[in-house]
């Protein structure tokens, strides 16, 4: 019916809330799961690996900020790539982003399990399960935790957003305390040699590849661009700020950990930070408190990362369905629970399979490699948008130092894939092939390519051209632009 | 239409069949009404997806509610998909310059309006809105003051109520339609809710809660929570 009723989407996230989403999704893995593996690879130089990984994430965060302020719709990186480069790359990015999140979540869940397993063992809760099933305690913990996240999100719970804020604040307080107390006890002798003797500085890049997974959360801020108040200022600040904060936390914690505890006691340790906490807080006679706090923090951090990733994955399913790249029935909303239940269930099933099949470092790299592929394409998409002067492309925030930032972002993201293990490089290759096959078999006959790139290559006929070219309105101060409700 | 007509915001949950009572709508006839159909968006779903799936139903519901207003009412409709109802209500009230927010509940016939009076700056606005709304109805009004026990000179409340009484009669409300009552109270919220029980609509002023009230809940918020009648909340727009 011809209606006069306007429909609006409320923007409910301020700068703090948006930053909390970024920090809450990111902070966790890098400090609670990976320090042991990173230290085994690169020793104290793993702090440098965290900084480099943060730098690569930062470049992409800048590009993602520009794209998100220009196209604030659900789907995040997938959406930007689909709009910029078309449904072929959209298929690759969508699948990559979705599976990448599933791998990353599996990794967080196993990390969570690492913290639960000793608690369960301590309480004699093992009950012989470990003997009966060919899974480690961490994997069992991960399976249980994942099942819980999936159930909670399948059935819908309100207020998880508020809970997330509390979790992040508690976490930051715990980490702040750890870093502050630890900084007073660092013995610089422990930090030398800075580079591992066997490999030297060449260990840094493979370590960067491993720890990149701990930065995957920043793009989540882009997926909620439509819900952020004053996005052209808040969105870049939230993304860049959260990457910066998390980079500092990771690097400082790594230095504190290795400055306090001898390298061989944490190398390869799944809960290395708990070892560090025992030493740091032990220096003040409260070692047990420290271990308890950091274990608690580890549980919170991995849970909030996993939960946020499950939600992101279903947003991608929805966005692909909306654009015709996937069957919309996958993202249908449940009548009673009001959740995209099929999407949550399928993503959950994938996560469980990955937990059972994978090892923690392999899961981390699989999650990273798929995201790096997506981030590389995202930077390329930004270049495509700018260079083709795409119609209606009017970002509220522009990447500083264009084209250096997106070009570097693309090169470094793709380049870092080269430092993964062969297994994960093959995974990236397989995903590209799968995306192409999916495009040819399913997408091509359903979806017309209206991306910036396609329009540039073959501009639409003049008579079907009904959109206004915004670039003409330059200096008359007329800034009100007609923009469709869905971009 | 009265050019001083207050703008009244009526939020309606359009994910349900909730609909404000026609008798309440009748009371709002002199006002410019902004009907906000809000649709809750769960954490698990993108707001756009909720809109894709439920826009038609939401618009239909809010326009249906609008069609139940008495003829000649000035009603605008709006649908908002939101994760936070109160944030939406505040923003829309600000955008439309609404001075009153209605907490709709079932009402029989609006015959008795209840106005708890506190010594706040908002009192002028509350009274002018009450006067406007009463202009087109036969309803009577009770002005009520709960004085904190022992805390206050009893004549303060009396003076407050007399002033309020005069304001209403000056604005054209017959004095036999106005009753006043004051009570010394250990717990103002209890007494307000009790005294309001045999009335049909409450009109209360929004106040900036003090820090302790933010934790424990300020008086207006508690009254809204505990009262069973619809409440018109007059915003403190100078804040």
From TrEMBL, chain A:
Per the annotation, which location comes first and is thus the protein's main one?
membrane
A Pfam entry, by short name: AA_permease_2
Residues annotated as transmembrane? 12-34, 40-64, 85-109, 129-154, 166-183, 203-226, 238-260, 280-301, 344-362, 368-385, 397-419, 425-443
Record-linked InterPro entries: AA/rel_permease1, APC_superfamily
Q: Where in the cell is it found?
A: Cell membrane
Q: How does it sit in the membrane?
A: Multi-pass membrane protein
Q: Which UniProt keywords apply?
A: Cell membrane, Membrane, Transmembrane, Transmembrane helix
The reply to whether Cell membrane figures as a keyword in the UniProt entry is: yes
What's one GO-annotated cellular component? plasma membrane
Write down what this protein is called.
APC family permease
Species name = Halobellus rarus
Automatic annotation (TrEMBL), chain B:
Matching InterPro entries? Universal_stress_UspA, UspA
| Pfam families linked | Usp (PF00582)
Question: CDD domains of this UniProt entry?
Answer: USP-like
Q: Which Gene3D superfamilies match?
A: 3.40.50.12370
Q: Where is the UspA domain?
A: 111-235
Q: Which family does it belong to?
A: Belongs to the universal stress protein A family.
User: What protein name applies here?
Assistant: Universal stress protein
Organism source for this protein? Halobellus rarus
């Amino acid at each position: 019916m011809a209606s006069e009723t306007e429909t609006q989407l409320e923007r409910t996230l301020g700068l703090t809330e948006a930053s909390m989403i970024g920090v809450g999704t990111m902070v966790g893995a890098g400090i609670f799961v990976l320090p042991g593996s990173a230290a085994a690879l690169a020793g104290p130089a793993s702090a440098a690996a965290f900084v480099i990984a943060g730098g690569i994430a930062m470049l992409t965060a800048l590009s993602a900020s520009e794209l998100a302020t220009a196209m604030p719709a659900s789907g995040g990186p997938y959406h930007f790539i689909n709009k910029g480069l078309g449904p072929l790359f959209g298929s690759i990015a969508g699948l990559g982003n979705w599976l990448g999140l599933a791998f990353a979540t599996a990794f967080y869940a196993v990390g969570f399990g690492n913290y639960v397993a000793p608690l369960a063992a301590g309480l004699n809760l093992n009950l012989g399960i470990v003997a009966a099933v060919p899974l480690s305690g961490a994997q069992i913990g991960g399976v249980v935790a994942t099942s819980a996240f999936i159930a909670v999100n399948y059935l819908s719970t309100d207020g998880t957003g508020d809970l997330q804020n509390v979790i992040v604040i508690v976490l930051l307080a715990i980490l702040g305390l750890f870093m502050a107390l630890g900084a007073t006890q660092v013995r610089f002798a422990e930090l030398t040699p800075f580079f591992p003797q066997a490999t030297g500085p060449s260990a840094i890049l493979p370590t960067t590849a491993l720890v990149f997974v701990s930065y995957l959360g920043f793009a989540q801020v882009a997926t909620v661009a439509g819900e952020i108040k004053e996005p052209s200022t808040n969105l870049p600040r939230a993304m860049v700020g959260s990457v910066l904060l998390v980079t500092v936390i990771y690097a400082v914690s790594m230095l504190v950990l290795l400055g306090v505890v001898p390298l061989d006691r944490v190398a390869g340790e799944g809960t290395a930070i708990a070892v560090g906490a025992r030493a740091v807080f032990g220096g003040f006679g409260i070692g047990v408190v420290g271990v308890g706090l950091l274990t608690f923090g580890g549980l919170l951090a991995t849970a909030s990362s996993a939960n946020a990733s499950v939600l992101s994955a279903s947003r991608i399913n929805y966005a692909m369905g909306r654009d015709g790249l996937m069957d919309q029935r996958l993202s249908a909303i449940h009548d009673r629970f009001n959740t995209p239940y099929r999407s949550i269930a399928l993503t959950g099933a994938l996560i469980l399979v990955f937990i059972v099949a994978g090892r923690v470092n392999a899961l981390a790299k699989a999650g990273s490699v798929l995201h790096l592929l997506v981030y590389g394409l995202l930077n390329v998409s930004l270049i495509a948008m700018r260079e083709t002067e795409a119609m209606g492309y009017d970002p509220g925030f522009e990447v500083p130092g264009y084209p250096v930032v997106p070009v570097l972002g693309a090169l470094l993201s793709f380049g870092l894939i080269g430092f993964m293990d062969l297994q994960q490089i093959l995974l990236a290759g397989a995903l590209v092939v799968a995306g192409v096959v999916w495009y040819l078999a399913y997408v091509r006959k359903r979806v017309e390519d209206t991306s910036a790139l396609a329009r540039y290559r073959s501009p639409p006929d003049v008579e079907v051209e009904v959109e206004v070219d915004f670039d003409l309105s330059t200096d008359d101060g007329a800034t009100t632009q007609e923009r469709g409700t869905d971009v | 239409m009265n050019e001083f007509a207050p703008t009244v915001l009526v939020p309606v949950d359009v994910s349900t069949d909730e609909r404000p009572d026609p008798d309440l709508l009748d009371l709002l006839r002199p006002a410019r009404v902004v009907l906000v159909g809000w649709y809750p968006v769960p954490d698990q779903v993108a707001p756009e997806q909720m809109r894709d799936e439920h826009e038609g139903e939401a618009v239909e519901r809010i326009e249906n509610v609008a069609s139940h207003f008495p003829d000649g009412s000035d009603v605008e409709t709006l649908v908002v998909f939101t994760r936070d109802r109160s944030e939406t209500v505040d923003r829309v009230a600000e955008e439309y310059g609404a001075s009153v927010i209605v907490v709709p509940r079932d009402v029989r016939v609006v015959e008795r309006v209840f106005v708890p009076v506190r010594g706040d700056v908002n009192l002028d606005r509350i009274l002018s809105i009450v006067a406007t709304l009463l202009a087109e109805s036969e309803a009577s009004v009770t002005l009520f003051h709960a004085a904190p026990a022992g805390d206050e000179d009893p004549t303060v409340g009396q003076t407050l109520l007399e002033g309020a009484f005069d304001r209403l009669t000056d604005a054209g409300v017959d004095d036999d339609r106005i009753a006043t009552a004051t009570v010394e109270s250990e717990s103002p919220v209890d007494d307000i809710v009790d005294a309001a029980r045999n009335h049909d609509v409450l009109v209360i002023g929004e106040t900036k809660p003090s820090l302790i009230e933010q934790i424990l809940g300020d008086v207006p918020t508690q009254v809204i929570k505990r009262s069973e009648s619809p409440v018109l909340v007059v915003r403190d727009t100078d804040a």
